[in-house]
Design a protein that fits this description.
With 266 residues, the chain is an alpha/beta fold. The protein folds into 2 domains: 108 residues, 3-Layer(aba) Sandwich (Cobalt-precorrin-4 Transmethylase, domain 1), CATH 3.40.1010.10; 149 residues, Tetrapyrrole methylase, C-terminal domain (Methyltransferase, Cobalt-precorrin-4 Transmethylase, Domain 2, 2-Layer Sandwich). 36% of the residues lie in helices and 23% in strands. It contains 11 helices and 12 strands. The strands form 3 sheets. A 5-stranded parallel β-sheet has the order 3-2-4-1-5, with helices on both faces. The protein is globular, with a radius of gyration of 19 Å. Belongs to the diphthine synthase family. It comes from Halopenitus malekzadehii. InterPro entries: 4pyrrol_Mease (IPR000878), 4pyrrol_Methylase_sf (IPR035996), 4pyrrole_Mease_sub1 (IPR014777), 4pyrrole_Mease_sub2 (IPR014776), Dphthn_synthase (IPR004551). GO terms for molecular function: diphthine synthase activity.
């Protein structure tokens, strides 16, 4: 059996009770933290809290060499841990399909996602979000500034009146000069806002920093103004709102201190 478990957003306690029980009962535990990570806990914290040993796999160890995970699942009960919800990344779907192809039973135990938390914290209604995008570091896509695909997706959502979640790039184990096991870099919301302000300086943006933590931050302002603020430690994401329902207007004013001149009249 291979069980995929989402760890939630913040620390070793963010896992669901079902996920906790499955982790503690497993014969082997694997994890990856290159797609996301917990803000308030490291591997040692997880191991101490759940009384287990966790083997962390890098991208190559999941995508190119998954055999140790699959062999452990074929021989007993193995779990695969990720921050947030476990099936957001196609990497994990591919691993599940590989297991199924070998006749290994799989199951999924979900965790809270950054996108659902962004909706909850900002007050923007979850069914009014369009396609999400990831904003990469310029060196990661070999160009300058914001990729055309990101601009086109945000514009398409705005034309339809939909909100856009902008996930911010994470680089673990790879840097500007290629593979680097010591490299760990997280794009911040002010950096992302500055990049997007080149096209939309006066457009309303909403920052969500450290969702799930006791000191989560939600702030709304012009992208050009957000670019000049410090939102503290990662993880961050950015939302570009579309058309706003009157309840969403109230939420952004009351929960994110959005300037009145950026909000439509009720």
């Amino acid at each position: 059996m291979l069980t995929f478990i989402g760890l939630g957003l913040y620390d070793e306690r963010s896992i669901t009770v079902e996920g906790r029980d499955a982790l503690r009962a497993a014969d082997r535990a694997f994890a990856e933290f290159y797609t996301s990570r917990l803000v308030g806990a490291d591997v040692d914290d997880l191991e101490a809290a759940h009384g287990t040993t966790i083997e962390v796999r890098d991208r190559a160890g999941v995508e190119q060499d998954p055999d140790p995970i699959l062999e452990a699942a074929a021989a007993g009960d193995a779990v695969f841990l990720t921050a947030g919800d476990t099936m957001v990344s196609t990497t994990h779907t591919d691993l599940r399909l590989r297991a199924e192809e070998r006749g290994i039973d799989t199951r999924v135990i979900h965790g809270v996602t950054a996108q659902s938390a962004a909706s909850s914290l900002t007050g923007l209604q979850n069914y009014r979000f369009g396609k999400a995008v990831t904003l990469p570091f310029p060196y990661a896509h070999g160009g300058d500034g914001v990729p055309d695909s990101v601009i086109e997706t945000i514009e398409a959502n705005r034309e339809r009146g939909l909100h856009t979640v902008v996930y911010l790039d994470i680089k673990v184990g790879i840097g500007p000069r290629g593979p680097d096991p010591d490299h760990e870099e997280y794009m911040t919301a002010d950096h992302a806002a500055a990049m997007l302000a080149d096209d939309w300086a006066d457009v309303l943006g909403v920052v969500v920093a450290r969702a799930g933590s006791p000191d989560a931050v939600v702030a709304a302002d012009r992208l050009s103004a957000l670019a000049d603020r410090d939102f503290g430690d990662p993880l961050h994401l950015l939302v570009i709102p579309g058309d706003l329902h009157h309840v969403e207007v109230d939420a952004l004013a009351g929960l994110a201190d959005a300037p009145a001149d950026l909000l439509p009249d009720r």
